[in-house]
Amino acid sequence: MKVLACLNGEIMPVEQAKVPVWDRGFLFGDAVYEVCRIYRGRCWLEAEHFARLRRSLQELEFPSVDVDGVIHRVHRTIDAGGIVEGTVYIQITRGVAPRTHAFPDPPVPPTEVIIVRPYDDRPTARLRENGAKVITHPDLRWKRCDIKSTNLLANCLATEAARRAGCHEAILVDSAGIVTESTHTSLLWVRQGRLGGTPEGPEILPGTTRQLVLRLVRTLDIPFAESRIPLADLLSADEVILVGTTTEVVPIIQVDDTPIAGGRPGPVAARLWEAYHDEVERFIGQGG
Ligand SMILES: Cc1ncc(COP(=O)(O)O)c(C=O)c1O
């Protein structure tokens, strides 16, 4: 299966896609991105991902970007790559201009890169089945984590620490000892029969998967409440659950050295996964 890039509208093998060194994405991380899952050749939660992309662009005062045009090029690239099960990565930078911190004046055209590639779900499927171990790590990110920018160095450091510990993810903990989210997934927990999650705000990314899961819990009659909880409360939770675009729904069975839910995937995670999976099946069934 070919990995294709669409660079500023031109589709090519990913190895041929080159960006100038004056690109502000390269120099400053002055760029926003999205990652969508492709099921049976179609983009899952497309409207939600592109609404978030629009918001990220707006929050960073990007000059106008034709997001409908981006969506069209995403479809073209998926079709050209013949990708059935995969992911699409979309990145838009503020464009190419000699290095200076202030925005280019007058504005320059944004750089747009779309990459489609196959995705092998089997490792994640094993985690869904058996549960995953995670570490905790200081949340070193900036104060606008609600914007999906490509400035991911703090996320990379925490993910690398998790990898070295033989763990799947790192749960981020702020300087006050409150858990926020994970490096590339949203964090949920179950305490006293209630599902919990960090309130939406600048501390976390508004996850598209979390948004869907929170819609599903209403029909499942699982009570949900947002709250900021200290790490100690997370460690004594009945369940801890990660949700995200490629992760989907993964139960956590250990945080640092503390077993969660007796070290086995819990019942709420199982119900959420089933409901989530049904939604995906319905989407696939709509085909077209
Ligand atoms: C920091 C962070 N939180 C949460 C998520 C989950 O978001 P989504 O469900 O839209 O994939 C991501 C996804 O990349 C992320 O990077």
Short description:
The chain is α+β, with helices and mostly antiparallel strands and 288 residues long. It has helices spanning 24-28, 46-59, 67-81, 122-130, 153-164, 208-220, 231-235, 267-286, and strands at 4-7, 10-13, 31-39, 42-43, 86-93, 111-118, 132-138, 169-173, 179-182, 186-191, 194-197, 224-226, 239-244, 248-255, 258-259. The strands form 2 sheets. Strands 7, 8, 9, 10, 11, 12, 13, 14 and 15 form a 9-stranded mixed beta sheet that branches. It has a 6-stranded antiparallel beta sheet with strand order 2-1-6-5-3-4.
Unreliably modeled segments: none
Helix/strand order? EEHEEHHEEHEHEEEEHEHEEEH
User: Which CATH class of the largest domain applies here?
Assistant: Alpha Beta
In the CATH hierarchy, the third-tier topology of the largest domain is known as D-amino Acid Aminotransferase, Chain A, domain 2
Secondary structure: helix percent: 25-40%
CATH superfamily of the largest domain: D-amino Acid Aminotransferase, subunit A, domain 2
> What characteristic shape results from the CA principal axes?
globular
Please count the beta strands (DSSP E, at least 2 residues each).
15
Which small molecules are bound?
Answer: pyridoxal-5'-phosphate
